[in-house]
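@channel anyone free to eyeball this complex?
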Amino acid sequence: MFLTSDPKAIDLQAKLFRGFGDPSRLSILTALRHGPLTVTDILEKTGLSQSNASNHLACLRDCGLVTAEQEGRYVTYHLSDDRVGELLELGESLLSDVARGVYECTRYNVPSAGTTKNKAVLRTLPK
Amino acid sequence: MFLTSDPKAIDLQAKLFRGFGDPSRLSILTALRHGPLTVTDILEKTGLSQSNASNHLACLRDCGLVTAEQEGRYVTYHLSDDRVGELLELGESLLSDVARGVYECTRYNVPSAGTTKNKAVLRTLPK
DNA sequence: GTATAATATCATTGGTTGATGATATGATGA
DNA sequence: TCATCATATCATCAACCAATGATATTATAC
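replying in thread with the prediction:
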């Protein structure tokens, strides 16, 4: 057996996709798609709580998906690379054709954006 | 406050990206990138255990990212849409520029592909 | 029919993650 | 200096997910 490619590269790439795979982070990235925004703007647009957004922004910043600039009292965030936006776009496009399947897939679920009130999970439906 | 876009769409899109955000699933998708493969082929290429691969294949199938065809005793899987491959490619390209940041991001971690022996997690480093 | 190879299903469980709430830091203006 | 606004940090804990191992199903060959 020889592996498709370096498992470490796979792990890293999976981690990269996870950056996009959380509703809070994804809503932040989506909000930034049309231009830079202040944290305050992000809070307004996404409806996330302050500390939640700040935690995720730190994560996105560490991962290199967004960059931050202090401007007076405010900090302005923007997407770090055009490919981040392209990935969002491609995901959106793909989703438009596979949405039903994704919706019905019961192996995993995402938490509802910004809240703890998660949907009931339907793991294993009896045949 | 008005939200960037339908939270339900965000949740779904996040769920889609999660399809790519697990090392086992990602290694399967990557293995399929150069053409259709039998489950047995996938096991060989990825090193995943049979039941683990089968579980993830079911998930990818449900989500519409791959399709399956029975051929005799074997089942052949292939990517369902060109955009799946494009997403992998774009992710790879982006990773080549942000890999260090992703590696060092400590907010979340992926399990090592196909095994339970996970790396130690370094959640919160003291300043 | 029986045996065997290929794949699928599913319950269990340990480790991980994300939201929260409290607190800390930093920047500006009075 | 103090007050206040903007943002960051961090510990806690409930919820979730993925690997495993056992078992079931399906297909072929004999």
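from a first look: The radius of gyration of chain B is 17 Å.
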